[in-house]
Design a protein that fits this description.
Blueprint (H helix, E strand, L loop, with lengths): L2 E5 L11 H6 L1 H13 L4 H6 L8 H21 L6 E4 L3 H9 L4 H18 L5 E7 L3 H11 L3 E8 L2 E7 H13 L4 E4 L12 H11 L11 E2 L13 H8 L6 H10 L4 E5 L4 H9 L4 E4 L3 H8 L6
Parallel strand pairs: 1-2, 1-8, 2-7, 8-9
Antiparallel strand pairs: 3-5, 3-6, 4-5
Helix pairs in contact: 2-4, 4-5, 4-6, 6-9, 7-8, 9-10
């Protein structure tokens, strides 16, 4: 069995995420408590309770990173280790934490700033993202071109699902064009900006400055990046990769294909929800997928043990 850990991205957040893990496992409590001490807001409260900040990018990103890292530490404590890592968009930071290239503490501060930069580049309400089902790459690109304005393919998630993003009005026009081209349906995403488009260029520039303050270490395990759908060659490429990642389409389908070609047959999704498991199954139904959000399911399928 060859295992890859895959880490959730923004949009997977939901009230109560991580609460059961926090209550059941000491190693998970330590991660949330550390996040609460490092940042100037209570990450655990935002995750566990009904808090509107959970859907604000500046808070969403550190919250999901914390949840994902808590899952990672639980897996490590249980002796289940990934041979490869990948993350969807924001999840790529969790993957780099898992690889040892950056500490959780550094990543936490960094993604807080990343979220703020993204929000300030395109204020909430200006942009939108929509998942288009039933069209291929060429058809989605055509829908965006016909719509005019700022709207672009942003996420290549799986066969038959491509996310578009841009100005809200342009996204609406692209949805109509996609429907004319035969799209089965469109679903608006629970995010506050047009991520992975050129509209985030100001955020990319500011993020580059922050990334250059960090000394990235060699990766202990390979990490597949959204930017190319291939492995990050070495730590010298992390800064340019993360800088471009903010404004470039997410090559998730291609990245999963690269992992499968490398021998991965088991994917474990670390973070809230089961979205990545769903994507991966649509890419290749032969592989096994798990998510440890549900503690009972975790103990049954992967042999976890509680630590009060």
């Amino acid at each position: 069995m060859s295992i890859a850990f895959v880490f959730s991205g923004q949009g997977s957040q939901k009230a109560g995420m991580g609460k059961e893990l926090y209550d059941s496992y000491q190693v998970c409590r330590e991660v949330f408590d550390l996040a609460d001490r490092i940042l100037d807001f209570p990450v655990s409260k935002i995750c566990f309770e009904e808090d509107p900040r959970l859907n604000e990018t500046e808070y969403t990103q550190p919250a999901i990173l914390t949840m994902s890292t808590a899952c990672l530490r639980l897996m490590e404590q249980s002796g289940i280790n990934g041979e490869y890592f990948a993350g969807l968009s924001l999840g790529e930071y969790s993957a780099l934490v898992a690889s040892g290239a950056i500490s959780f503490e550094e990543a936490l501060v960094l993604v807080r700033k990343r979220g703020r930069f993204m929000t300030e580049a395109v204020p909430a309400g200006v942009g939108a993202m929509s998942a288009v089902m039933g069209l291929n790459r060429e058809e989605v690109s055509k829908a965006c071109e016909l719509a005019g304005g700022q709207v672009y393919p942003a996420n290549y998630n799986m066969p038959g699902q491509i996310v578009i993003a841009g100005e809200k009005e342009a996204v609406e026009r692209a949805e109509k064009e996609a429907e004319k081209l035969g799209a089965k349906r469109m679903t608006r995403l629970n995010v506050s900006g047009p991520f992975h488009t050129p509209m985030l260029e100001p955020a990319s520039r500011r993020l580059y400055e922050e990334l250059n303050k960090i000394v990235f270490k060699p990766m202990k395990r390979p990490v597949v990046t959204n930017l190319t759908g291939d492995f990050i060659p070495d730590e010298s490429e992390i800064i340019p990769t993360l800088t471009k990642q903010v404004i470039s389409p997410v090559e998730w389908e291609k990245g999963i294909g690269r992992l499968i070609a490398s021998g991965v047959d088991t994917f474990i999704e670390l973070g809230p929800g089961k979205t990545l498991c769903s994507f991966i199954k649509k890419i290749d139904r032969q592989v096994k997928t798990y998510n440890i959000e549900d503690v009972k399911s975790y103990e049954k399928t992967l042999g976890g043990s509680r630590s009060e």
